[in-house]
Amino acid sequence: MSRPHSFPTSSAVSRRRFIGIGGALAAGGLLAACGGEEPVTGGGGDAAPASTLGTTSGASGSIRILDDNTNPVFLNGVVEAFQNDTGITVEYEQANFNDLHDRLATLFSAQDSSYDVVMTWAAWSAEFGQAGWLQALGSDAVPTDLLPAALDAVSWNGTVYGLPKFASAQTMFYNKELFRQAGLDPEAPPATWDEFVAAAKALTTGDRYGFTCDMGNTDGAYQNFVRTLLLNGGQMYGDDNTVTFNDERGVEALTKLRDLLTVDKVMNPSSLQITNASDLGTLFGAGQTGIVFNWPSQWAAATKEGAVVGRENTGNAIIPGISVTTASIDGSEGFAINQFSQNKPAALAWLQYVTQRPVQTRIVEEEGWFPVTTTLLDDAAITETLPVVSTYKEQSDFEIRRYGSPWYSDVTQVLSTNISRAMLEQATPQEALDEAAARATDIVERYTG
């Protein structure tokens, strides 16, 4: 299934029966109503809508939620617990991600209030938020300890339009047993790009490549380039959204990405056909590649019952940098409130409920995503359950971006097309990025002009 961040779902950790999501979460501080609080900033810039939603007590009634199908945990007890704890009735629906954008756009453009809460991520928060279709939140409605990258996924241009349901960023996974067989130290993963390339060469044999990635669809090609761009200290955009990805750092980044395939010959050629991170995870879990840069659910795929690699041989570390120490791309998701909802206090109660410890603990334990708060990220029990959390803590000290924007889909399409041209040596990296940048500049100007 193709999706912006190509997330698989996972139930590799033993699914617990309903965790008592206690009445503490039903305290008045979680419940909300429309207010006039100043909006909290979260995505850069200083634009803000005139009316924001602030916290108060006494939310009641009913809400309808339209989500993607990433999180089975909501159907497996969380919705029921929320209803029991708050007295708010919920009609919860999951839909295929690929169908969700157009469905939401149709809903919003008709000012349809039939769904109160909708799933969002960085690009949609920007697109639908700028269009005036999402309810902005006041600062008192937003937990103070949210992780910046998770908050960024529900924000645009200085305004927070929702709350995250899980945090996610890519880190490096490597097969310790294959490291041993190649004469590499499994406890000393590569820390620089040159070390990564050297390790990938050592791991490449007649029937196995040292590195594999997922560049087989539009967003996969975009993600792999943006990650390499950030690792080289580059940026997609400069001041006033000026396109900068075709500068010297961008060209060097794409050159290094292409060289993995055409010069170093350490990238599995099937990387250009792999369309989903779950397929990448399965390949790594089967011991068929040495290194991947993947989402946190890679841990579950590699350590689940029947996986060849297993827990003891799954290594995890920050992604090796080119001209900076490290960087990564964000894949956090969240919930937002339909601007046309007639049940906003109850809708905000749901958004806040999902960020609390009991729900976040289940998302970590049962699905393998990162928690959305610094408090839980520092919790030893969380790290014991999901060891890659410790790597995420280290990774999050450095830049993690996705560049969600109203023009995300349009720019991603033209950039990915040209990245593929460069990877297939149909154009030089400079030619490919210059072509993409010219078209991206026109696209951004249409949105901002």
TrEMBL record:
<dbReference type="GO" id="GO:0042956">
    <property type="term" value="P:maltodextrin transmembrane transport"/>
</dbReference>
<dbReference type="Pfam" id="PF01547">
    <property type="entry name" value="SBP_bac_1"/>
</dbReference>
<dbReference type="GO" id="GO:0055052">
    <property type="term" value="C:ATP-binding cassette (ABC) transporter complex, substrate-binding subunit-containing"/>
</dbReference>
<dbReference type="InterPro" id="IPR006311">
    <property type="entry name" value="TAT_signal"/>
</dbReference>
<dbReference type="InterPro" id="IPR006059">
    <property type="entry name" value="SBP"/>
</dbReference>
<dbReference type="GO" id="GO:1901982">
    <property type="term" value="F:maltose binding"/>
</dbReference>
<dbReference type="GO" id="GO:0015768">
    <property type="term" value="P:maltose transport"/>
</dbReference>
<keyword id="KW-0813">Transport</keyword>
<comment type="similarity">
    <text>Belongs to the bacterial solute-binding protein 1 family.</text>
</comment>
<protein>
    <submittedName>
        <fullName>Extracellular solute-binding protein</fullName>
    </submittedName>
</protein>
<keyword id="KW-0732">Signal</keyword>
